[in-house]
Amino acid sequence: MFRRLEDCYNVEMLRLLAKQRLPGPIFHYIDGAADDEVTYRQNTSAFDACDLVPNVLVGVDEVDMSTTVMGQKIDMPIFCSPTALQRLFHNDGERGVARAAEKYGTMFGVSSLGTVSLAEIGAMTSGPKMFQFYYHKDKGLNQTLLERAKAANFDVLALTVDTATGGNRERDLRTGFTSPPKLTLQSLLSFAIRPLWAYEYFRNEPMAMAEIQGHVKEGSNIAISVGDYFSKMLDMNLDWDDAAKLKEDWGRPFCVKGLMSAEDAKRAVDIGADAIMVSNHGGRQLDGSRAPFDQLKEILDAVGGDIEVIMDGGIRRGTHVLKAMALGATACSGGRMYLYALAAAGQAGVEKALGNMRTEIERGMRLMGVTRLDQLSEDMLRWR
Question: Is 281 an annotated catalytic residue?
Answer without folding.
Answer: yes
